[in-house]
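Bug #77: duplicate submission created two jobs. Keeping one. Sequence:
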Amino acid sequence: MSSYTFISCKDMTTDEFVNVIKAERDKSAEEVIVVDITKQSPRFEDVKKVLYAGANFALVEDEKIFAEAQARFEEKIVKSLDEVDERIEGLKTVTKIPFSEFKTNENGLVPCIAQDYYTGKVLMMAYMNEESYNKTLETGLMTYWSRSREKLWTKGEESGHFQHMLSLTIDCDKDTILAKVKQEGPACHTGNETCFFTPLAVKNSSEVSDAFTVLQDVYATIKDRKENPREGSYTNYLFDKGIDKILKKCGEECTEIVIAAKNPDKEEIKYEIADFLYHVMVLMAVKDVSWDEIITELDRR
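Kept job's structure:
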């Protein structure tokens, strides 16, 4: 039988079981949480809130709600704990190539590049030996070999800025590992988001940055306007008018998207969607919601 945390919602209100799930999730990002939503009057809304709060699986017995929930959430909806065991087995880390087949240096080490799974940014480079590699697979936390201290170190063990391993890939020569991770806090000991922040050479280019970087940059500008107002700024006009004005603009932009979608020329809908995203980011700044939080929520769904 697989190991997991089981929570029953039978005698809880919606707010109560959401808080319990969030508290369990805060203890560990790797913990598998199974929630039984069997209650007197189960609702599809309960299933959504259970999964959005951080549960991995929802146990649903009501046939109607099971069908509706499975159509939306697929493998996260189960009818029995036996199904949970099967699904958890499918979540376990599988390594196809043993460390002994890697091309290590004379000290038995192989470089490992850590990349943010959500943004694609390269965060840092460190070394792994067989012991740190196996511990990473076992715990799900990136663990390296410190050459200066000559011992294992789990990233974040002192700072709290853990790296949750999402995938490991070896390159064609089997001498470098790429780790895609979920990073908590900054990756660099200097407090920078990434260890690669010192420019050496930059060639002018007209290439557009990746989509997520553009969204983050625009959001950062909006946040800066909030903290450092500028006269004549439309963004500051919205902040000054307050959340009701911002919500009204979001609604108006939604309508503009619907109208633009009826136009065969896609240029108009691109423009309207960009307008909508801008106003949504103003709303995000007011509510102090970041793109990282949005992406994490989407990924969890």
